[in-house]
Each structure stands twice: as C-alpha cells, then as structure tokens.
Fold Thiamine-monophosphate kinase.
Amino acid sequence: MEREIIELFMRHLKIQGDLPLGDDAGAIKLGNEWFVATNDMLVRKTDVPDIMTPEQVGFKAVTMNVSDVAAMGARPVGFLFSLGVPGDIDMDYLEGVARGIGDALEFYNLPVLSADTNEADDLIIDGIALGRTGRLLTRSGAKPGDLVCVTGDIGRALAGLLLWRYGVDVSGRIRRPLYEKLLEPRARVAEGIELSGYANAAIDISDGLSKELHLLARMSGVRIEVDAERLPVRKEAVEAARMLGISAVEMALASGEEFELVFTIPGEVAESLRVEFTVIGRVEKGNGVYVTIGGKREEMPLLGWEHLNRKVYGTYRALFR
Amino acid sequence: MEREIIELFMRHLKIQGDLPLGDDAGAIKLGNEWFVATNDMLVRKTDVPDIMTPEQVGFKAVTMNVSDVAAMGARPVGFLFSLGVPGDIDMDYLEGVARGIGDALEFYNLPVLSADTNEADDLIIDGIALGRTGRLLTRSGAKPGDLVCVTGDIGRALAGLLLWRYGVDVSGRIRRPLYEKLLEPRARVAEGIELSGYANAAIDISDGLSKELHLLARMSGVRIEVDAERLPVRKEAVEAARMLGISAVEMALASGEEFELVFTIPGEVAESLRVEFTVIGRVEKGNGVYVTIGGKREEMPLLGWEHLNRKVYGTYRALFR
C-alpha cells in the first residue's frame, strides 16, 4: 500500500530538488552549503506501543527526524511540528508529550521554529527537522572497495518489542537495556557530522538493517557482502532471541527504529574516524545483498519485524497448545 | 482548546530560533540571509468542505504553506509533505490529491524535497514550505504612521462557504467568483517578495482580517484604525451578504483562508510599490483595533466564521418557521 501510494504521487510530482527524492531527507543547495529538510509523522495508534510514556513519545518524534538529518551528514539547526489532537485528549498525556519534545530539543540543542495544532481523530505528531552541511551523505554514494560499517549495536529494539508483546518474563538485567533502546532511542548526531567529511554513503536504521542495506545497494548500484558474525549484537539481545526461539542474526537484521547509522567508507579513511563503529562487511561490484552465516553465504532476505513476529507467534502458540 | 494546547507546549519549549515563535513561519539566520520554514496540517474531516474536489484539496495544502512563506517576505524554494492515509482510502481520490499537489508545485515553480506516507484514521496532508529572503517581514514590525493595506479583495471565501452551507440559490454570475476564492485560493508570492523590500509588517489572511489585525496590533504594540468603507469587497460578495441577511463588512472581516496579504508600510514608500493593493487604514500609537462604519467609530470585534454562521442560521431558521 505504502509503495503504491508513493508511486502514485511520484507520477504527479515533476519538479524535484537538487537531490532526487529517495534519501533520508530532501536537500537544496544554497551557495556552498546544502540545506537539508526532513519530515516524519508519528501516529499514536500505529506507531506507539502501549508501554511508551507520553514523554518518550514526544522525545521520539524529535529523534526520528533528527536521525534523518544526521544520516545526511548534516548538523541539525531547527525543528518544527504540527500536532493533530483528538477533541477528547487527556491533557496530562498531552503535557507529557510536550515535555518530551522540550527535553529532546534541549538534548539535541535545537531551537523550535514553528508549531501548529489541529483537530484530528488520533494523536499525530508531524515533526520537521532542518539541517546544514558542506558535504551531503546520500544513499547512492557507496563505492566498490568501501567497508560497510554501523554505529552502536543492533537488535535491542525488536528484542524489547517482542518480549513485551508476548509477556515474556525476563530479569531486569536483560529487560532494561532492551527497553531502553525500544523506548528511548537517540539519534547519532555527532557521528553524522563527523562522517560527513569521510564516508561515501549513509542511511539511518528506520526499517531494519536488512532493508537499509538493500536500499544502499540498489541506490548505489553495488553489491554488499555482510559477515553475520561481525554484527554488533549485545548479549542481552542474543539471550532474548534464544528465549523467543528465533535467530539473533535475523532479529538484528529486522530490528527497526534503532536510529544507528549504516555507512560505507574507504578502509584507509575509516581508521582516522573519531566515531565508534563496527565493520560488518564490504561493498563490491555487482548488485544485491549477501550475508555469510557460519561459513555459508546466501542472499540476505528482506526482513521486517512482522516476519520475526510471526515466528515468535508460531513458537508461543505451540508452547501453549 | 487550541490556545490551551499552544500554551501548554510553550511552557516546555525553552529554546527558540532567531525569530521568536508567533509569526507565520519560523526563521533562522544563515549568514546574511533568513531561511524560513513553515508547516500547516490539512485534515479532511475538519478542513475540507464536501464540494472541494481532491485536486483542489491537494492544491490548497500547498497554497496554505506557500502563503505563510510569502507573508514573511520570502521566496519559496522547496516543499515537503507527510500524508496520513486511511486503509480504506479511495485510490482515485488520492490520485486527485496527488495531481493537485503536483499542479500547485508547478504553479508556484517549487521542487518537492521529501514526501512520506503513513497510515492514519483520516486523510491528513501536513505540508512544509521553505523559503529565503534577505529581509524578513514579521507581525511585530508595524510602526505608528504606517498605512494598513491589503492585497486583492476580501469576503468571497466566507460568502461562498455560507451560500453552499445553506443551499442558497444564486446565479452562476455570483456563485462563480465566490466559489473560486473558496475552492481555489492562490498565495500572493510575487507580492510577498516585492513587499519584503518595503513593508514594515505583514501577515496573511488565514483566520479572517479582524483576527489578523488584532494579532498585528498586539505583536507590534500599536493601535490600528480601519475605515470600513475602504475594505475591498467585490459586489458579488456584497450581494451574497444581503441574501444571507448579514453585514458585508462583518463578512469581509470574518472571512478566513483568503490568503491575501495584510501589510503596513510608510505612505511615501507605498507609492512606489509594484503591487496592487488597497489602503484600508492607519497605524497609530496605542493599542487595540478600531473600525469606523458610517461615521461611527467602534472597537473592532474578533470575528470568526462561526459568528457569521450563527447569524445566518438564525435568519434561515426564522424564514422556515
């Protein structure tokens, strides 16, 4: 459905900016600088798990937009938002959302430039982040020979979501770091700015590493080879995967809204980066995305969280039969 | 409700941009230039009368944002949007909206920089327009001695809305120009750019001239005096007001989403403007907004369309008793 809607709109939008559509953000060139703008809508009913506090909802509405700016290698310079608010909204809840937005703007040191409110059926926060950079990072710049790298670790957000969804009883030691990533992810702003000087391509993890790698490979016209053993998955996420009866690698590849940056960069340049990252693979000539697991190389499937959810549901249904 | 929500958010948003909140758009200074950004959400259920075609809905979602940029004296340079789309949307309707957005972007010669779609309960178009200008027009710059001026004419949008709402039978000669303004308003882009060199303050008519004048007076710390006889109201709007049993002046002051620009400017400068406009009053020291009707001067009430709607409802209920 989403794909169909986007194609329908593409047919009718003839004038594009200095950067074609399809990146994390739009961009226009002003003099020697790129000005970056991005918007992302958060809809309570579809995007917010019940355990999220209103403060976390507000914070995340900022983070998801700031992350798109960071993925372009740009420094965030301002935030705007439109609210859709149901007539019967709980004002305490709304105040929590406001507090979360305010806290996030302080955290990212970002001024709010404009805010607007409207009546709507469901709580909607449409955030807009603006940024600037001398050199733009896109999804189409990956070059054969580049290393494929990722900041931070992956998999915790989906591990936390599945533990919550299936009411799996785990210790606080495991639950805490997983819920932290699920409920309070942070955008990699400093990393994006540093990378803008060196990387050839970048994207943030919104829909899961496997989907982002496929986008990078397709938009850059290259092949990507990933070594599953190098994926930075924390032990709490591995333990959760075992309890849920699923593969930790698949979980890490499917986990969305992690807001880590995936980037490609020449090996000799990577050494001087002042960013913590893990090399997970390599860019080659060709096309497609491949992953080597336990010495076996295969095409990397396009994994989404629904896929893992079905597997867990299968396991749990069997257990309770 | 809207006011309460805005105040709630203001308490939690500590960092503001180079221009305080409260104008048509947000702005940040980059070198010698102002970069302007604005966003406005259109919700089908509350913002769209049934007679509007999907093409008109899409076009208006662009116009309302471009108008805010124009009111800042800025040249629009890019457009972004987020869609909220119900699962059961009629795809033909959605294609009409896409065509309308595409037509508007061609009309305003504006590139689309980013687009995003989400599932939502109602059709929502959150548009964002970006612009740039060397000199910013704000709501707070009006100076005693300035003339108060307005582009185009006012009142047709509300006249058309009320005729439609109450099913009043009028000739095409009257209906056509009123519906044109109601359904296909256009932003005053060239006028905004020209005014940025000369005017002291500007605002676009979103909520009705009376509300915009009160905002101008309050934010500039001045008094505004308007001469009702000088208001540019077209004869079709006057005839509609007569048929509806309401005052044409009140209708013109209450009519929203006209997207005309209201501006204040020193008299000697106004003469050299290459913009068509009407002088409707004068800025003085003091505070408040006053209107002189038939030689009688009174405080201008804060008129909204609901007010006029109640009056027409009263008339029509009496007629049908």
About this structure: Chain B is about 40% helix and 25% strand. Chain B touches chain A through 72 residues (CB under 8 Å). The two ends of chain B are 34 Å apart (CA to CA). Chain B has two domains: 2-133, 147-319.
